[in-house]
Write a structure and sequence with these properties.
The structure is a homodimer. Chain A has about 400 residues and is α+β, with helices and mostly antiparallel strands. Chain A folds into two domains: about 1-180, Ribosomal Protein S5, domain 2, CATH 3.30.230; about 185-360, 2-Layer Sandwich (Alpha-Beta Plaits). Chain A has helices spanning about 70-90, 95, 115-130, 140, 200-210, 210-235, 240-255, 270-285, 310-320, and strands at about 1-10, 10-15, 20, 25-30, 30-35, 45-50, 60, 65, 100-105, 155-160, 170-175, 185-190, 290-295, 300-305, 330, 355-360, 370. Chain A is globular. The mean pLDDT of chain A is about 90.
């Protein structure tokens, strides 16, 4: 019997992944770059237990049992077992034991905060720990959820698209660790939204099939932007970093809109946030804030530590919290300063509650094993300690 | 003394114009194609009076005096006078007389319904009538407002980008007249919107300067789509016409979004309308409705006469009118049929009033002179009959 529990971070792409060249192996059409967010504020947590007593692989996700027949889950466990068997040679009895997995996010899945990336990264990392698998795990996590491969390291991470047909060279690697740019801060703006979401998997696939602009983006726009982004990160040139981050977010959403039928992820509040950022930067004469949006309406803002108080103060003025929301800013503690004095900034203020709440966090490290007697999500029988009755 | 009054139509592009290669001459980066809408429902009306008694060129637009020093207005009057002088030879005394112009739209300018296109087309057409100018007027109207050149003819009109530096070959020409596809109907959906608008002139210019995707659109996407659109119109292939119209609208808005800072014209209601159209078409198994959006949130739907009753009925179910709105559907009379029976169609219904009202119209003819003693907007002294006190 063996039980391990790990946590893994969320990552936010600043050069976006949108479009696969191989659906089954999850091989992307372009390189992408992300920042790994601190696990202090947001993480997935996974407990893996391997036991000769188990009769079946089982999985509980956020308190609900899910099927391991999901092909992406099945691929991850199969690949880990294959590696474990290769390493163990003939003594591979342990590899044949069944596994119980229990996983939770400490943030709402519905918030659309790249929960699958953290989840798959945590699953693969935990399975690897349980089975004693060494070496690159990113090419396994990638097959669970593409962007999960970028959650296996801290700091700033590049997922190389690779060129091999089998995807062996489509792996993620750290560009700069979490101490490279310690002033970098992140605000996740959770936006009110009523719409039904187009899944990123199906939106992406349709974009590849129908968008005339996506082909141009992946071939002619992203390669140079990736180089420029690495240089901006290396130089810690925030102005340039912000410009590239903003442009790449809009380029991705442009290609999603150019899809037939269109895949629309940003809503009026998202666009109002983007507008706020442009006005704020214009007022400062230099880019102080960057925004990026994934396949949902929530904004992710990047900014430097010294600018957080005034940006948060200005944000609260333009997007007043709902009167009943008592913890509008969560995460890292911060003193809000009065809003910037600029009449041009305030288009509104908008009605209250358009932004539900803000998570204040920073760039952090990769997954890690957590120790202690009470950290596990499974009990000694391999059953979840917390189950939602169904 | 000479007084003429003319009316000119609105046009709606199905292949969009977005981006100039010459700002001053208003030369576009690609061909565009539009449908001219019937003047019965929407038109600009302009009275031009030329008199030796006038001391100054004067202009009243929707009841407010405007300056003729506006360079675009100045260009139009200068070009007309140049042509008139060329035609009149030495007897050009009349050409030197000053002009009074009064122009009105019979629809709200604020509705963002391409009012400048109808307005400049009407101005140039009326001036030409007053000064007896013959020949192509589209290259003059184009210098007032690019898309105005497409309002000088009825039916379906193509604006050729041309290749000459002086713009002489950047003219609009009729592809098919208004009787070619008599079943074609148009619904203008006027959408509630609170946002401040980015002008299309400045949005377009920024797109040319900053959008990586626009270059690809104008060079590699629009040329083939233009050919396909002409063929679809020729064959009266509605399914294909709708696909091309929808794709081109989204492609244009994608490039606007790819601009730095982004130019966002569609809002949540616009996207909900697009979603409604895709659901409706999917339910029918064939494209019954096309949507297109200009530089604003209002939708323009194309559909065939036989489908209007059910589409309107379905639209009213999904987007309920505001209870106080007593004439939700205006223009051509129509019987609404019950909504389509399809649970998938109705995402909502949305809160009432998201669509303010609908104008039901059809493809129509070009500008024309209107006769009669009481048609003029100027009195015998050359002053507007209706002035808004300022």
């Amino acid at each position: 019997m063996s039980m391990v529990t790990c946590i893994a971070p969320v990552n936010i792409a600043v050069i976006k992944y949108w479009g696969k060249r191989n659906e089954e192996l999850i091989l992307p059409l372009n390189d992408s770059i992300s920042a790994t967010l601190s696990t202090e504020q947001m993480h997935a947590k996974t407990t893996v237990m391997v036991s000769s007593n188990f009769t079946k692989d089982k999985l509980w996700l956020n308190g609900k049992e899910e099927s391991f027949e999901n092909p992406r889950l099945a691929t991850c466990i199969r690949e880990i077992r294959k590696r474990a068997a290769e390493a163990a040679g003939q003594q591979s009895e342990f590899v044949k034991y069944k596994v119980h997995v229990c996983s939770e996010n400490n943030f709402p899945t519905a918030a659309g905060l790249a929960s699958s990336a953290a989840g798959y990264a945590c699953l693969v990392y935990s399975l690897a720990k349980a089975y004693g698998v060494e070496g690159d795990l990113t090419s396994i996590a990638r097959q669970g959820s593409g962007s999960a491969c970028r959650s296996l390291d801290g700091g700033f991470v590049r997922w190389r698209m690779g060129s091999k047909a089998d995807g062996k060279d489509s792996i993620a690697e750290q560009l700069f660790d979490e101490d490279h740019w310690p002033e970098m801060r992140v605000l996740i703006l959770v936006v009110n939204d009523a719409r039904k979401k187009v899944s990123s998997t199906s939106g992406m696939q349709l974009s590849v099939e129908t968008s005339d602009l996506l082909k141009h983006r992946v071939e002619n726009v992203v390669p140079q932007r990736t180089k420029d982004m690495i240089e901006a990160l290396k130089q810690k040139d925030f102005h340039k970093f912000a410009e590239l981050t903003i442009k790449d977010s809009n380029s991705f959403h442009a290609c999603a809109l150019d899809t037939y039928p269109p895949a629309v992820y940003m809503n009026d509040t998202s666009h109002a946030i983007a507008d706020f950022v442009h006005r704020y930067n214009k007022s400062k004469g230099v880019n102080k804030v960057a925004y990026t949006f994934d396949a949902g309406p929530n904004a992710c803002l990047f900014l430097l530590e010294a600018d957080v108080p005034e940006v948060l103060g200005s944000l609260e003025l333009v997007f007043p919290p709902h009167p009943k929301e008592k913890s509008f800013v969560r995460g890292l503690p911060v003193q809000r300063l009065p809003a910037i004095q600029d009449a041009e900034l305030v288009q509104g203020p908008h009605e209250s509650g358009r932004i539900k709440y803000v998570i204040h966090t920073k760039v952090g490290s990769g997954p890690r094993l957590v120790k202690g007697s009470d950290v596990h999500l499974l009990n000694d029988e391999g059953l979840p300690k917390n189950v939602i009755s169904q």
